[in-house]
């Protein structure tokens, strides 16, 4: 299986250097990453908004090694919030954050991440938008959900991400299906042990549907993070079955993937949000996108062949 190999490569500094140095890499990465600078991300927001799409912005930066990096990531998000406010784009764009980028994995990481992310959530509110806490590997779930609970005391619109491949996620869906809760449901993109997560794709898909049923039947706001046509169709049926209007849920897909499907959903009157990553630390994100779908890896390899 290539997936685990690519996920391991995502954490390899030596492979990072090889991939980054390859002449073909940059034009291929541009399919999945909006750019390295804030101005490029703002341009992408305006372009997608003109097509009827909404966005969530992710400043790339995870697996940090010292508190100074956490502060730099905090400041990058504060600059992003200021740009959204300046350009009046808060209504079209929210922000996604990985708490590892704010120091969650460092010594005293829980308190450090909460301290660093709080001003970002405050700035987002001032810009007329909100923040969703991305979920990472299973060891971070309890800390992430505890930080979510703290943030929601002042900012109840703060969102969370849940991953269907974890055994615990159905219980987490029940806990987060209440009024005002925003939950992005995804299948999961990290290599997890069999002790905590489903390994078979069919079981992950079944778990996704079970979780989606819980969220759609609840009083919160489900965000369907999937490119799988079956899951999109199931979500539409569940929304109808539970009497949800288009404003009561949304679909989310990654920048550069299934763009025609994104436009189709918009044309049908659905809310469609595109996950836009930007920043210089694109390598780990890029490798996970290759690992998730063979089509993504094929795209990269074909580009290597045609541009080599």
Number of helices: 13
Q: Identify the strand order in the major beta sheet.
A: 1-2-3-4-5-6-7-8
Which percent bin holds the helix content? 40-55%
Radius of gyration: 18 Å
Share of β-strand residues? 5-15%
Q: Which outline best applies?
A: globular
Architecture in CATH? Alpha-Beta Barrel
Instruction: Compute the average pLDDT.
Output: 88
What is the fold-level CATH name, i.e. the topology? TIM Barrel
Low-confidence runs (pLDDT<50, min 5 residues)? none
Number of strands: 8
First CA to last CA: what distance? 25 Å
Catalytic activity: L-proline + a quinone = (S)-1-pyrroline-5-carboxylate + a quinol + H(+)
Organism: Streptomyces lydicamycinicus
Keywords: FAD, Flavoprotein, Nucleotide-binding, Oxidoreductase, Proline metabolism
GO molecular function: nucleotide binding; proline dehydrogenase activity
Structure characteristics:
308 residues; 13 helices; proline dehydrogenase activity; 52% helix; TIM Barrel; oxidoreductase; 8-stranded parallel barrel; 8 strands; alpha/beta
């Amino acid at each position: 299986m290539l997936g685990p190999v690519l996920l391991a490569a995502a954490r390899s500094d030596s492979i990072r250097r090889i991939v980054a140095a390859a002449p073909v890499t940059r034009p291929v990465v541009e399919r999945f990453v909006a750019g390295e600078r804030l101005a490029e991300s703002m341009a992408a927001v305006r372009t997608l908004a003109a097509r009827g799409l909404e966005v969530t912005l992710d400043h790339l930066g995870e697996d940090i090694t010292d508190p100074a990096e956490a502060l730099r990531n905090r400041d990058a998000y504060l600059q992003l919030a200021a740009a959204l406010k300046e350009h009046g784009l808060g209504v079209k764009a929210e922000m996604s954050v990985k708490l590892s980028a704010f120091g969650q994995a460092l010594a005293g990481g829980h308190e450090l991440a909460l301290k660093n992310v709080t001003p970002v959530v405050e700035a987002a509110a001032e810009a007329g938008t909100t923040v969703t806490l991305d979920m990472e590997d299973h060891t971070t779930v309890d800390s992430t959900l505890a930080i979510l609970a703290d943030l929601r005391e002042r900012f109840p619109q703060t969102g969370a991400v849940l991953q269907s491949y974890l055994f615990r996620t159905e219980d987490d869906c029940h806990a987060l299906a209440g009024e005002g809760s925003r939950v992005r449901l995804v299948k999961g993109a990290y290599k997890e042990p069999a002790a905590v997560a489903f390994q078979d794709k069919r079981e992950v898909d079944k778990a996704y549907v079970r979780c989606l049923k819980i969220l759609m039947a609840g009083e919160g706001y489900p965000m369907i993070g999937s490119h799988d046509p079956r899951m999109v169709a199931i979500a539409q049926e569940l929304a109808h079955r539970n009497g949800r209007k288009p404003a009561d849920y949304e679909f989310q897909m990654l920048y550069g993937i299934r763009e025609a499907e994104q436009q189709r959903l918009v044309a049908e009157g659905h809310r469609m949000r595109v996950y836009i990553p930007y920043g210089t630390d694109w390598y780990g994100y890029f490798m996970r996108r290759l690992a998730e779908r063979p089509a993504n890896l094929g795209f990269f390899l074909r580009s290597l062949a045609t541009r080599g």
